[in-house]
C-alpha cells in the first residue's frame, strides 16, 4: 500500500482511502469484516460523517482496537455552534475515540472564518484546543468556495469531487492545494456510480501524488478491486485513455453527480437518481431501475412545479427540472 503525507496535517496516510457512506446499508457483521479487511491490507484513512446514520458506530466497532494506527475524518454541516459541538461529542462516542484526526465543515455555502458571526470556526478552534479534534478541514462541491478555503490558510484539508470527468478548472484546485500544502480528499471518484471503470478511475487519480481518493465501499469485492489496483497499479496507457475519452464523450457536461443536495423535493421526486437514471440503466444492473416503483417515480416528474428549489441547491447550477423531463422521456423509451 502506497502512502503519502496528508498536507499540512503531517499525517502519513494510505493513498487509497475508505469512504464510509455505504457501510451503513449492510449488516454490522459485514461492515466489520470489510473495515477490518481494509485495515489488514494497509488502508489507514477512513472518512465518514455524523449524519451517515450508523457509519461512525460501525467504524468504532470494527477499528477502535487499532485507533492509534488509523486516521479518522468526519464532518458536520455548520447549522449552529451547538449542533456542531454536539456532533463532535457524538462522533467521539460512536467511533470510541478521544480525538478526531480531521473534523470537516461539511459543504457550507461560504467559508467559515475566525470571529465570524456564525461562530463555527471559533467553536472548532475551541474543540482543537481541548484536544477533541486535531485538524480542521472543509468539504464542498462548489469550486469557488473550495478555492477560497484553500487560499485562506484556515483549513488543513479540503474534500472535493475529483474524477476523470473533472474540468480543467476543477483539476487546477489540485495544484492550488499543493502550493498551500493542503491535503486533498477526492470524493465522487466514480461519480456516484456513473463510472464503472474502476481501474481507469484509480489510474487517473493516482497521477496526483497529493490526492487521497475516498472510494465508497459496500461490498468485499469492491474493496478487493481497489486493493488489487494498489498491488498492481493499472497503467494510464493508450487503451485506458481511450476508455476515459469515451466516458467523457458520453457523460461530460450537464449531468447529475448524484450528491443529493437538491433533496427533499416538494412533490417527492427522487431527483438525484431520476436525473441520471438512463445512465444508471446502461451502466449498472438495469433490473434495479426497470421496476414498477421506478416507473411511478419517473411518472411523478409530471407533477414537478418548477419551483426552482433543486436548481438553487445544486452546487453545479443544473436546471434539474429540464434535465428530469429529458431523462423521463428517454427512460420510457428504454424500458
Strand order of the largest sheet: 3-4-5-6-7-8-9-10
Total count of strands: 10
* Helix and strand pattern: EEEHEHEHEHEHEHEHEHHHHHHH
Question: What oligomeric state best describes the polypeptide chains here?
Answer: single chain
| Residue windows where pLDDT falls under 50 for at least 5 positions | none
CATH architecture of the largest domain: Alpha-Beta Barrel
The biggest sheet, with number of strands, parallel, antiparallel or mixed sense and barrel status, is:
8 strands, parallel, barrel
% residues in beta strands? 5-15%
Number of helices: 14
Structural commentary:
The chain is an alpha/beta fold and 335 residues long. The protein has 2 domains: 3-245, NADP-dependent oxidoreductase domain (TIM Barrel, Alpha-Beta Barrel), CATH 3.20.20; 271-334, no CATH class. The protein is 43% helix and 14% strand. The protein has 14 helices and 10 strands. It has helices spanning 28-40, 55-63, 81-94, 120-129, 143-152, 168-180, 198-206, 220-231, 238-251, 271-274, 277-283, 292-299, 309-313, 320-334, and strands spanning 3-5, 12-14, 17-19, 45-47, 71-76, 100-106, 133-139, 157-161, 183-187, 211-216. The strands form 2 sheets. It has an 8-stranded parallel beta barrel with strand order 3-4-5-6-7-8-9-10, surrounded by 5 helices. Strands 1-2 form a two-stranded antiparallel sheet. α3 runs parallel beside α4. The chain is globular and about 55 Å long. 41% of the residues are buried. The model has no long low-confidence stretch (mean pLDDT 94).
